[in-house]
């Protein structure tokens, strides 16, 4: 009975609840969904009072100021709650002379401050207050000037970098040098100046720029490496070469050559070369045209004084000496952004290009012009032309010729093995060559022969056997490092002589650097001796030691 009574009471209570809910639903109007409820809106205050002004944002409830950032005249504020429907468009009008413009979004406000205005931002749990004041003229001027200088240095750096990458090296160098002389240096621009000087061939100025950059950022690896590379390529050094050369069916030569570079104070450099040749040949034409063997030594010497001028020019004065030959030569070069042009003249230059010149004191007078250009990152061009006059001791005008040389190099691969394809032209056109007559001995008449012996016959010969050639060669060149201190290079190709014989040619070399200052190299090659006019095969092998100091 008790259980039935409790069930009846619960059933009556449930009916009352259901009826109440239905009445509540019927009496309550339909409300919008939660997503349509507008968020609490921030309240804005913008007041200007004499020499001060303020901008205030307040929210009902707690809020965090997530970001306060100042860039120049721009002040950015970001909050943890949305702005709601607050209207900030009237702020510039209320804060005229303090705020020039305002931009705002979901939870952020950007104020564009007027000139000479400073802002002090104070954030609390209810919002943020920005107090505006006028900057002092001196402080503002100093800050603005500093900011302008910093910005201008950055602009000049990127402008110079663009010029350098575009091949306008001279303009980039001029811009960087002007900035270095007119104000304090920065390491980045000074290092870029070193690269520009290096590209223009001014290695001394490049080293000085690297030193200046290292004073600003000591022990910077890239700067240390750049300076070390320049000194490695251009510093003082001495080199001893020894080679064995065999011309098929002709001569064998053993050649020792001592060369070196010594830098002088200022912009001058001394270069020297001392050469000793041991020649073994069974028959070589003498000055009178008679063939005779020769087994002996011949030496020659070159001494060059080079001077680099401030305006990217260079002059070389060279003195020559050999057996019964003394000569002099001068060369002047102009360096451009991506090119170099040289003109020169030489008088009484010893020439060992052919055997008669080695044995009988050969000499050459010449005028020449050469031009090298870097066409792009992959293309390089070399052109040259000259006028030559050959002679022997006591007779300076035995042959005349014009010469043309050219090469076009294309880099196939720069990553990994450096691979290049090269076309080369080596041409010499003989315009005049002296011919002389030599009387051959007449055969003796028999004792009972009543007929008188015939007159001696004449044989004609050229005292200087220089010959016309036009050699077109295509070569594939590869070079790379085998290990940290071992590198190799190899060339293989074919040479076509339109006026003589053609054939394959190639060369290989291996270089080892056991010490930073010591370099040891081995090499071998095969080619044709086209300069002699015989097109005989030439095999050579040798090596060298080089010491940098």
Q: What about the largest sheet?
A: 16 strands, antiparallel, barrel
Count the strands? 26
Name the CATH class of the largest domain. Mainly Beta
Q: Give the N-terminus to C-terminus distance in angstroms.
A: 121 Å
Decide which structural class fits the backbone.
alpha+beta
Order the strands across the largest sheet as they lie in space. 9-10-11-12-13-14-15-16-17-18-19-22-23-24-25-26
The CATH topology of the largest domain is given as: Porin
Return the average pLDDT rounded to an integer.
Answer: 85
What is the count of distinct domains? 3
Protein name: Tetratricopeptide repeat protein
Organism: Azospirillum griseum
InterPro entries: TPR-like_helical_dom_sf, TPR_rpt
Keywords: TPR repeat
């Amino acid at each position: 009975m008790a259980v039935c009574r409790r069930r009846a009471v619960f059933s009556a209570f449930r009916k009352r609840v259901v009826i109440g809910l239905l009445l509540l639903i019927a009496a309550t109007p339909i409300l919008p969904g939660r997503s349509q409820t507008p968020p609490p809106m921030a309240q804005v205050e913008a007041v200007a009072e004499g020499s001060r002004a303020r901008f205030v944002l307040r929210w009902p409830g707690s809020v965090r100021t997530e970001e306060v950032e100042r860039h120049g005249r721009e002040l950015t504020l970001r909050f943890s709650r949305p702005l709601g429907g607050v209207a900030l468009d009237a702020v510039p009008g209320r804060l005229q002379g303090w705020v020039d413009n305002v931009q705002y979004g979901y939870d952020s406000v950007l104020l564009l401050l007027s000139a000479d205005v400073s802002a002090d931002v104070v954030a609390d749990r209810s919002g943020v207050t920005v107090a505006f004041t006028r900057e002092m003229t001196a402080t503002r001027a100093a800050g603005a000037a500093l900011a302008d200088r910093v910005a201008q240095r950055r602009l000049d750096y990127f402008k110079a970098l663009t010029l350098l990458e575009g091949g306008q090296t001279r303009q980039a160098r001029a811009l960087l040098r002007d900035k270095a002389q007119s104000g304090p240096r920065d390491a980045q621009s000074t290092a870029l100046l070193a690269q520009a000087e290096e590209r223009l061939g001014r290695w001394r100025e490049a080293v000085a720029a690297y030193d200046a950059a290292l004073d600003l950022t000591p022990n910077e690896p890239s700067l240390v490496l750049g300076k070390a590379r320049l000194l490695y390529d251009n510093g003082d050094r001495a080199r001893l070469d020894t080679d064995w050369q065999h011309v098929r069916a002709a001569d064998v030569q053993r050649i020792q050559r001592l060369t070196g570079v010594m830098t002088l104070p200022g912009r001058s450099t001394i270069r020297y070369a001392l050469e000793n040749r041991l020649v073994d040949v069974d028959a070589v034409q003498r000055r009178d045209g008679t063939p005779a063997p020769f087994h002996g030594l011949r030496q020659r010497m070159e001494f060059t004084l080079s001077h680099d001028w401030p305006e990217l020019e260079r002059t070389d004065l060279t003195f020559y000496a050999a057996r019964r030959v003394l000569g002099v030569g001068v060369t002047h070069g102009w360096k451009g952004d991506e090119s170099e042009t040289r003109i020169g003249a030489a008088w009484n230059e010893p020439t060992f290009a052919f055997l008669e010149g080695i044995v009988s004191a050969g000499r050459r007078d010449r005028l020449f012009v050469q031009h090298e250009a870097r066409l792009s990152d992959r293309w390089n061009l070399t052109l040259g032309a000259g006028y030559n006059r050959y002679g022997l001791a006591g007779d300076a005008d035995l042959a005349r010729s014009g010469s043309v040389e050219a090469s076009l190099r294309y880099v196939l691969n720069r990553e990994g093995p450096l691979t290049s394809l090269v076309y080369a032209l080596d041409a010499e056109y003989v315009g005049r060559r002296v011919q002389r007559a030599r009387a051959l001995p007449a055969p003796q008449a028999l004792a009972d022969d009543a007929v008188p012996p015939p007159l001696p016959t004449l044989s004609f010969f050229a005292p200087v056997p220089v010959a016309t050639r036009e050699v077109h060669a295509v070569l594939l060149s590869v070079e790379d490092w085998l290990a940290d201190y071992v590198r190799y290079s190899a060339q293989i190709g074919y040479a076509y002589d339109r006026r003589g014989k053609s054939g394959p040619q190639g060369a290989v070399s291996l270089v080892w650097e056991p010490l930073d200052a010591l370099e040891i190299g081995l090499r071998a090659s095969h080619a044709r001796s086209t300069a002699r006019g015989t097109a005989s095969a030439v095999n050579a092998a040798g090596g060298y030691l080089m010491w940098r100091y």
